Amino acid sequence: MSGDQPSAGDSADALDPAPIYEAVREEMGRVLIGNESAVEHLTIALFTRGHVLLEGVPGVAKTTLANLFARVTGLEYTRIQMTPDILPADITGTHVYRESTGTFELQRGPIFANMVVADEINRATPKTQSALLEAMQERRVTIEGETLTLPTPFMVVATQNPIEMEGVFELPEAQRDRFQFKLTVDLPDRTVERQLLDRFDDDPDLGPEAVDRVVTISDLVAARETVTQVHVAAPVKEYVLDLVAATRDHPDVTHGASPRATLAFLDGAKARAAIRGREYVIPDDVKALTESILVHRLVLSTDADLSDVTTADVVADVTDSVTSPGADAVELQPASDGGEKRE
């Protein structure tokens, strides 16, 4: 860590997620231009034990984004280049025979890291993709009958290319559902791309190595506990249930969002409120996460597919059709210091 770069963990409010997020965002901004929404979602996922799926055409810095985030937060980082010939054991690890000792020794795979980047995940076969399922859900892996716990924190960031159709295997619904968020990393607009040109013209070697760690693992774990204490009023919970129910009842949807999506709303909204310095969730916290939580979870009907309806279209329709709690749902809740806080 550089001498002039303060750590969020050095301040008196070290357990407050807000200064941690600001420190992460500012440090990543030394290299990253734009994509602040992705930085926010990665931070929320880290605070809520979530996983993130990044989709975008080649060259939009999906992998660099994950690498930067890992370096700034001090997470041990591994990258797995997914290909059709990669095997589950290449991810989880296996027992290797050591001739010198005449014994089998466990060789851990790249899954044993704080952040695992599965690059171009849809190039791997379904069998290999399934090797990530237990890790993502249970935070553990089983290698030849031996169950091993993964590091804390642990998150998977997967990337995929939406325009590649040959030699790819679409993620099964069970796999997609385990990603808390799916984000689309778009091409930059002209203004942002000009800033990119100027920055790399000044420093052609600019990359993830240019950023410093700004927070400790212990602070990240403690900040997670702060997030769990964020208050969610009953009308906001009903709003979440209404959104999820609307996906299940939508005429263009065969299979709507699962209860895992409901919990993703709860956890994600708490973390979004916390990184904004609030101890309570507002409806806008839920609404802001609607597309990233739902867009990859919906299975459309055949008629919708034939009509070129997309899951993004359905999510937009659901968001517009479900009424969020208004001013009449505002409540006063007791605050921890004996006063009152407004929802």
From TrEMBL:
Q: What InterPro entries does the entry give?
A: AAA+_ATPase, ATPase_AAA-3, CbbQ/NirQ/NorQ/GpvN, ChlI/MoxR_AAA_lid, P-loop_NTPase
Q: Does the keyword ATP-binding apply?
A: yes
- Which residues belong to the signal peptide in this entry? none
Q: Which residue ranges does the record assign to the AAA+ ATPase domain?
A: 48-189
Arranged from A to Z, the UniProt key words for this protein are: ATP-binding, Nucleotide-binding
For this UniProt entry, the molecular function terms from Gene Ontology, in alphabetical order, are: ATP binding; ATP hydrolysis activity
Name the PANTHER family on file.
MAGNESIUM-CHELATASE SUBUNIT CHLD, MOXR FAMILY PROTEIN
Q: What is this protein called?
A: MoxR family ATPase
